[in-house]
Design a protein that fits this description.
The complex is a heterotrimer of chains A (about 280), B (about 450) and C (about 300). By secondary structure, chain A is mainly α. Chain A has 13 helices and 1 strand. In chain A, helix 8 crosses helix 10 and helix 12 runs antiparallel to helix 13. Chain C has a two-stranded antiparallel ribbon. The chains are: A mainly alpha (about 280), B alpha+beta (about 450), C mainly alpha (about 300). Chain C: Keywords: Cell membrane, Membrane, Transmembrane, Transmembrane helix, Transport.
Amino acid sequence: MRRALGTLPTLVLLLGAAYCLLPVAWVLVAATKSSGELFATSTFSPGTSILANLDDLSSYRDGAFWRWMANSALYAGVGALLSAALSGLTGYALAKFAFRGRDLVFNALIAGVLVPSVVLAIPQYLLISEVGLADTYLSVLVPSVLSPYGIYLARIYAAAAVPEDVVEAARTDGAGEGRILWSIAVPMMAPGLVTVFLFQFVAIWNNFLLPFIMLGDDRKFPVTLGLYTMLNQGNTTPALYTLAIVGSLVSVLPLIALFLTLQRYWRVDLLSGAVKA
Amino acid sequence: MLSLATLIRPEIPMRFDIARKAVAAGLGLALLVGCGSSGGQEPEGPTELSFWAWAPNIEKVVDRWNAAHPDRKVVMSKQAQGDDLVTKLLTSAKAGSGPDLAQVEFQALPTLVSNDVLADIAAHASSVKGEFPDGVWQQVTLGGDGVYAIPQDSGPMMFYYRTDLFEQYGLTVPKTWDEYARTARTLRTKAPDKFLGTFSSNDPGWFAGLAQQAGGSWWSVDGDTWKVSIDDAATKKVASYWSGLVAEGAVDKTPMYTPEWNKALNDGTQIGWVSAVWAPGVLAGNAQSTVGKWAMAPLPQWDAASPRTGNWGGSTTAVTAGSKKQKAAAEFAIWLNTDPEAVAALVTDSGVYPAATKAQTGSALAKPPAFFPAQTDFYATAQRVASTAAGFTWGPNVNVAYTAYKNAFGAAITGGTDLAPALAEMQRATIDDLRASGFKVG
Amino acid sequence: MPSTTSRPRRAGAATPYLFVAPAVVLFLLVLAIPIAYTVYLSLFRIEVSGLGLGKGSRKEVFTGLGNYARTLTDAEMGAGALRVLGYGALLVPTMLLLALVFALLLDEDRARARGFSRIAIFLPYAIPGVIATLLWGFLYLPSTSPFVQLLTELSLPEVDLLSPTGIYFALANIAVWGGVGYNMIVLYTALRSIPRDLYEAARIDGCSPVQVALRIKIPLVVPALVLTTLFSVVATLQVFAEPTTLAPLTNSLSRTWSPLMKVYQDAFARGDVHSAAAASVVIAAVMFVLSFGLLRITRSRAFGGER
């Protein structure tokens, strides 16, 4: 009876895992095929060209792909770092201080998020051009810093992880608010901030529309946009399927690495902050 | 991907007006403030020109220019294909941050001119009029006195077929559309898993080319009034012809440029392709295993006595209205598309079929495309076909008509209904849009 | 639920304002001003004179609520909203049910391969929607799909996922695939925060694992379920990237399939920023109504312990 009960859940979980891994397995296999093999051989039979494909990818337009990867790392790394910092600061303030306008600030932040980005794309582009920032790294980076979702999570973490009496005690000892935040609250909120960083990193890395609208210079493209231009070369040129497939595979590797190495931070309790280890 | 985090992915640009240069410097980032910020007067000293294009390897051709003109350096930025680029040009022009030069397809010219995106370079470019066929030149002047672009390549339509499979099934190359239909049916009976071609609801440019061949004229100008006749008799003839073939299952109905279609070309499920002069490059990419097995023939005809063809694709190099270096930019555009060495490089590196008359008989086109080693007269035939291309006037809302084509023809094909109502829908949507925008429509 | 009751300080000081200032400034610049600008744009329209080819032949004229009247009476917009509702009705329950089942199983000590499954099911979250759609596209198209090959070999009838009905399933599947892992993680984290001794007590009372799940675990994660549902519904209404990427592969998807796709077409293909802005405002208004419902729930549940 116990064994049977253990087998069924395991089976269901493995089925779920298989479903989620199937397309990933497809990319892995497809990445090994030459463009001749891609449409000629049966779906899951591996090809022989993985190294040649990687080589082609690296030499595509003098290493444009790696430049795009570096750009993505810059946008996602710097953006997520600043975003975690901003979220921590704001979340802490919202959780630990009662002040006039707190609810207004919080509601506005959360509600603003529900406006679809497609909707805002043009006005934002026009405005950003007006200040001369269109087609710059900053045009993609700066908007990525505000993450209402991160602020939302950080508020919950701060409420749950930073005990009020510790803060009070520090105040009684005469510590300034900035010092309390930096030496007491931040260490306590650290796991939550790492989570915010991770989600924001993925969000920026996978973002497409913002750089698509903002950037004209392909040397500033992130990898998603670069792959898109590879796939979309017009009637007269077939899509560079093989390169785009290998490129897609390579471009998700850093994210998979993040998943595996920082496993324990991938948890989101929208209600209680998941502070219990 | 559906999740909270997707919802709030930071796809949200912003206005950022604090000391931006200081911040940029602090972060160690390059800051490229929109091009052409150098003021009213055309600069005399060294300058850089920005160029958005998508043609493959066009950067190699640009490198040649840069080597010879170090003080007029052209900075290439590779973009996604035509429609996406039109979108970006429209938005960047509104914002005043576009490039100096852009690759623009013929059918997008009126849209861009109408939105004041392109510069009139008649003062610099009228002299090269003679380098191009009249029909092509007329498309960059939009029938007026202005010159809005320099033609780069054209896409006269042709018929491609698998010689080996035609032989195997005892088929002959169709010279008329009647023969094409008969050949398609014969093939279906001899090899029920194969098709002579497909009707693609995904490629309005393809259908527009077929309509041009039949004598269709979708837009025309009468005084200050636009006339739209997408559902004219000629186009109706084309639509009902394909409607019949699709309905009886004589041709396939999967869209072109999908993984499935690529596979079908590669494995011989599709043994023919109604395409244009640039097809060899496409086939080399998606049907590698069939190298040497294809041949090209003129497009099947409605009236074999007076052969015609249409254009599918074809593009130009245009100078933007926002550019402060229009003279230098126009010089580059002229060089790129008329200089013998540049055009030869375009042919060999980018694989385009040049619009310039001299280049079509030039030495770069002496050899057949690598994918068609056996057809030594490929470009001689191509030039003969190209000379029969029908003229065409594009309207200011081609993109609307194209979207309507994709939607209405896609729905008709999936619904298994006649294509004539879809054509009427395309006409209606195009006129409605013109009226809604305040154009005078006759 | 938070184990600590933190009592925010009633500070008259400027500290909290200083702390939230950067976020508020950024919010104004990134969101508030563009939204205001969108509303402004929605009140105008383009007027063309003559052939519209000369310089300055287009000018903006004030039209008041004209764009709104057109948006609200637009048949394609309404049809798109209906299509998205159908798609959502298919997607949201399936995804959340699967997420809940997986989360419960991950929380079940006897199941094996839990670490692996958790990562595997969460993995699609890392894959951009555009790429995910391309991958599934390959797996849907009859001639490249291993499933169709399998069905043919087993002499079973072919299932066309790219037919007009099939497309709903095809799209919902991509969204389920991409989103189930994320929702699973949310629910799983909620499950882990339930005190273990509750289960022990139930087990001693003779409850089977299934009964524990149904009577204790699920009721306790209802708040998390409500939240994930609401977020999923909002995301569903904004569906854009997947159908846009899938459309070129099939005849069954129009370029105006969802309301946001229509907005995109208006703004980018038709170059009519003004009516796109009006439609945007309407869509945003619907989102706001939803988000306020959402805020009511989250505030009472999530921040009960703060004040």
